[in-house]
Amino acid sequence: MIKDFLKEYFAWYALYFLLVITFLITFFLYHLPFSYFITSLLFTGTITILVSIWQFYLYYQKRQELAANLLLGKDSLLNSPLEKAFLAHYHNLEKEQLQELSYYLEREKNLQNLVKMWSHQMKVPLSAISLMTQTNQLNPQDIDRQLLSLDNYVDTLITYLKFHHHKTDFRFERIHLKEVVVEIVKKYRLLFLHKGIDIEISGDWVLKSDHKWLSFAITQLIDNALKYTKKGGKITIRMANSLVVEDTGIGILKEDIPRLFEEGFTGYNGREYQKATGLGLYMTKRILDDLGLTISITSDLDQGTTVVIKN
């Protein structure tokens, strides 16, 4: 510690010794009484030693204060302008680190809850397939529907994890949106047939976007329309410099609409029908924001829901 102290105040001690040498040369050149120099040296040397002892004590106390992390005390010894600037910077860094730690802890908690929720969601189609096997009622169409549900859950989970690790791989290209929509509808054809839901597709929209991520976002919208449209209903998809997905489903409560894009929000319908994960629309909004597109939702209870995507 003494070595560090000397390094800290090296400039002052060097200045003192420089002054001593200067006075010694002056006394020598002008043939002044050397006894006066010795007396002055003893006097200034004594003062220097006493001040050094006091400064070393303060230095030791400051080191102890730093080591004990007692930087929030009102009686802090760190009170010079430079030290106060250091404390302010230290507190800002500490606050940022605490906020970052809180964010990561909250994210870890959300991921744990997500895994628990996903385990429950994926058990439903797995249990259905298991029941079919046990009762020897292996209907290929029923199995395909359950496998489609599993595929959607896994795809959503992987996409969600990519979001939280900032792993997006956008590749913009010219896209005919009708081709994307038709591809998704074909993927869900068994569900359309199973629930007897009519699908009407009209128009087209040519835009520059990322095929994979845009497809994921639209898949979430069509998947929601299918979930909440009862048997015999209808889903209409129109395209003309925008995308409109309209269904004749159960609708959404007015008070739930402003919160639809919040992470983990399921709303009344999601809780009532046990079909929502609270992530689909959240990720859809995130993707569309990154793609430079906007999304809006209007709905009337027991009348249906309309989703509009546009530039």
Automatic annotation (TrEMBL):
EC number: 2.7.13.3
Chain segments annotated as transmembrane: 12-30, 36-60
UniProt key word Repressor: no
Keywords: Cell membrane, Kinase, Membrane, Transferase, Transmembrane, Transmembrane helix, Two-component regulatory system
UniProt domain Histidine kinase: residue ranges: 117-311
Localization in the cell: Cell membrane
Coiled coil, from the record: none
Main location group: membrane
GO molecular function list: kinase activity
Top-level taxon of origin: Bacteria
Keyword Transmembrane appears in the UniProt entry: yes
Database matches in Pfam families: HATPase_c (PF02518)
Entry protein name: histidine kinase
Organism name: Streptococcus pacificus
